[in-house]
Design a protein that fits this description.
Structural class: alpha+beta
Helix content: 55-70%
Shape: elongated
Strand content: 5-15%
Order of helices and strands: EHEHEEHHHH
Strand order of the largest sheet: 2-1-3-4
Largest sheet: 4 strands, mixed
Radius of gyration: 26 Å
């Protein structure tokens, strides 16, 4: 499956350029296979994109603006839906791709699967959820210990300051 990103190479809009760059940079960061299809220089690309964006997803003027994202011929969405998916850690689902094992999205999908089919984490042969939960608990415990140490150091500092003040007053 190849992700198709329809872009306009010669757009006069800086907002469109930034949105296109954001999508491409994010896909590159995830190391996903994708193809950039230019609608400014290729009329076939422009027509294909316009015909394949679902009617309910088109703006009121009827002409969808780039970037538009597809998984092969399956419409994924525009920049706004991409951005929402990115914020929700659900980009792989947005793109119609399986999330890589151990990713936040895979862990979330595992949690949702457990809730849906009624099984428990202990029954999950992957055990990735239990592992993540254990790691989170360890991080919380380390954070608690760090806060306690900082609090103890702050109290010692206050006591030292108090002793110095008392010594100065005594002189």
């Amino acid at each position: 499956m190849v992700i198709k990103v329809f872009l306009a190479s010669s757009s006069g809009s800086t907002a469109i350029k930034k949105k296109q760059q954001d999508v491409v940079a994010f896909l590159e960061a995830l190391k996903l296979d994708y193809t950039q299809l230019d609608i400014a220089c290729n009329e076939e690309n422009r027509m294909w994109m316009r015909q394949n964006v679902p009617e309910e997803k088109k703006p009121t003027n009827g002409i969808p603006l780039p970037p538009q994202i597809f998984n092969e011929e399956q419409y994924c969405g525009d920049y706004d839906t991409f951005f929402d998916a990115k914020e929700d850690n659900s980009v792989y689902a947005f793109l119609g791709l399986p999330p890589p094992p151990g990713s936040k999205e895979a862990v979330q999908a595992d949690k949702e699967h457990i809730v849906q089919n009624g099984t428990h984490a202990a029954e999950n042969p992957d055990d990735s959820i239990a592992q993540v939960e254990e790691e989170e608990e360890q991080e919380e415990e380390e954070l608690r210990q760090l806060e306690e140490e900082e609090e103890a150091e702050a109290q010692e500092g206050e006591e030292d300051d108090l002793e110095e003040t008392q010594e100065e007053e005594a002189e």
